[in-house]
Amino acid sequence: MPRVYLSLGSNIAPEKNLPRALALLRQHVRVEQVSRVWQTPPYGTQGAPFLNAAAAIETSLPAEALKEDVLRPIEAALGRVRGPDKFAPRPIDLDILLYGARLLEPEVWERPHLAVPLAEILPDYENPRTGEHLADAARRLLPPNGFFLRPDVVLQESIENIFTGQQNADDADAR
Q: What is the rounded distance in angstroms from the CA atom of residue 70 to the CA atom of residue 51?
């Protein structure tokens, strides 16, 4: 099975939607590794900051089936409505960055909200055109402000709580 790397982002109730998205994802694929959560300014628009993370998964699904049969339904289940503004606020955004050895999102070398979380779980990935490692690109792209870790949002712990039936009062109220 190919290893696939995903980006996860949210700027509408992100503290709830990132863990929920990961829990739904685990119902369809094997989640191998998850980065820490980073708060980043919105890209291409004004609005609330985003929380971003990256995940390494394994799946037998081809890239297009993963996108259309797993990722898009998870986005819809969490309230994502795709419209003409591709930078609009969203409860969740799930994108395939790499599928096996194939880079599907070349913007990973240009956008810190993609590069930084991914570099945590794939630091030695090399840009085939420049030879730059992802960890070096993440350091190069990291802006001086507005971009920071959110240690209060721990996706692994949140996932474990979801599967053991533990939830906090906010989660119970949201259902």
A: 21
Beta carbons within 10 angstroms of residue 170's beta carbon: 10
Region 64-89 average pLDDT = 90
- Active-site residue, from 95, 111, 136, 171: 95
Give the pairing type, strands 38-40 and 50-58: antiparallel
CATH number at residue 7: 3.30.70.560
User: What residue has token string 């089936």?
Assistant: 65
Q: Which domain holds residue 86?
A: 3-174
Q: Is 72 a catalytic residue?
A: no
Confirm whether 129 is a catalytic residue.
no
Rounded Cα–Cα distance for residues 58 and 99 (Å): 10
Report the domain count for the chain: 1
Known active-site residue 124: no
The band of 160, judged by pLDDT with boundaries at 50, 70 and 90, is: very low
